[in-house]
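User: Hi! I'm working on a homework problem where we have to compare a predicted structure to a textbook description. Could you give me the structure for the chain below?
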Amino acid sequence: MTPVPDITAVVTEAWCAVLEIDDVSPEDNFFVLGGNSLAVAMLIHRVQETLGIELAMDDVLLDGRLASVIGRCEVLHEALPGQLR
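Assistant: Happy to help. Predicted C-alpha cells:
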C-alpha cells in the first residue's frame, strides 16, 4: 500500500509555484491571483506528477478556488487502486 500524501500541501505548493506567490488561503481564486489557461496546465502537470491522479482542466476552471481543487484531488486520489484510506 502506498502511504497517503499530504494532498493539501502538494496542491498548495504547486499552486504557489505556478503563480509565483508565497502564500494563499483556501478561498483564493486561481484566476484572481493571475492564473490563466497555460498556468492551469502547468498546475495540473505538477499535481499529476506528484499524486498520480488525472486532474482535468475543468477541475480548476469551473470553480478556481484552492479549496475546491484540493477537494477534487482528494476524491481522485481516494479512487486510485491500492490507496490507504
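For your comparison, note the following. The chain has one domain: 7-78. Residues 15 and 43 are 6 Å apart (CA to CA). Good luck with the assignment!
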